[in-house]
Design a protein that fits this description.
By secondary structure, this protein is mostly beta strands. The chain has one domain: Porin, CATH 2.40.160.20. The protein is 10% helix and 68% strand. It has a 10-stranded antiparallel beta barrel. It has a two-stranded antiparallel sheet with strand order 6-7. The longest helix is centred in the N-terminal third of the chain and has 21 residues.
């Protein structure tokens, strides 16, 4: 069978359109957040069985601080998305405690100013898939690998001690995106998992406004909570975030 040049052109155009449609479905995303972070609670005992229990905001005191987070995303196929997050967090507490503090093998005398530093930097890689994709609602589920670079330290004059922690844990990622109006949306998304020795939750509820097809502004509330109760340490904390941010979506062409 001989195919005419005209038919070949039609086939070529159709194939090019289908290929272009697949390429356009691929999309890069840049998600930036900033705002105020406040300690809800931050309880520590190191070692977990013999150290002194300390509530940093209650025993020492804390003030609201600023934060920043950045996420890079890549959407492809029929609902797949890969995300890479960098979320640094460092909070300082300062004050005096009425009794001696046993912390990581050292004794910090009472009634002497103590500076406590809590650092929890989070690096995460996520794959998630849209389980439901309708005109005004999306529901996504995935898996996150979180790498934590953390330490808890006390300093009192020339006396100091610091417990570092570096490790990786899996988390369940989820996202619900509802758009009740053309330019207005609501986002509920996060990572969470609980086990017998600890837990972790990082969840955002935000309202979105589409400035254009490329830029979306958001404002909302984020909660970061979790910790571990094991022999070498006890630490559980909760932080409240007042969030503002922007999402930039860029098609690959």
């Amino acid at each position: 069978m001989i195919i005419s040049t005209k038919k070949l052109r039609v086939v070529f155009i159709i194939c090019s359109m289908l290929l272009s449609a697949q390429i356009i479905k691929a999309q890069f995303k840049l998600d930036v957040e900033t705002g105020v972070v406040v300690t809800g609670y931050n309880d520590v005992r190191i070692p977990g069985s013999t150290g002194t229990f300390i509530s940093f905001p209650d025993d020492l005191g804390s003030s609201p601080g600023l934060f920043a987070r950045i996420t890079f995303g890549y959407k492809f196929g029929e609902g797949s998305e890969i995300l890479a997050l960098y979320a640094p967090l460092t909070v300082k507490y300062e004050g005096e405690i009425d009794s001696d503090v046993e912390f990581f093998g050292k004794t910090f005398p009472s009634a002497t100013p103590i500076l406590a530093t809590y650092k929890f930097n989070s690096y995460r890689a996520t794959y998630r898939y849209n389980l439901l994709c309708r005109e005004n609602i999306n529901i996504a589920l995935g898996l996150t690998i979180k790498v934590r670079d953390a330490f808890i330290g006390l300093q009192q004059g020339n006396l100091d001690a610091k417990k570092t922690d570096f490790g990786a844990v899996p988390l369940i990622n989820f996202g619900v995106y509802w758009q009740p109006a053309d330019n207005i949306g609501v986002t509920l998304e996060g990572d969470a998992l609980a086990a017998h020795s600890g837990r972790a939750e990082d969840v955002l509820l935000a309202f979105n406004y589409d400035v254009s097809d490329i830029i979306t502004l958001k404002a909302g509330y984020r909660i970061l909570e979790g910790g571990a109760d094991i022999e070498k340490l006890y630490t559980f904390s909760m932080f409240h975030y007042g969030v503002i941010g922007a999402v930039v979506n860029l098609p690959t062409r």
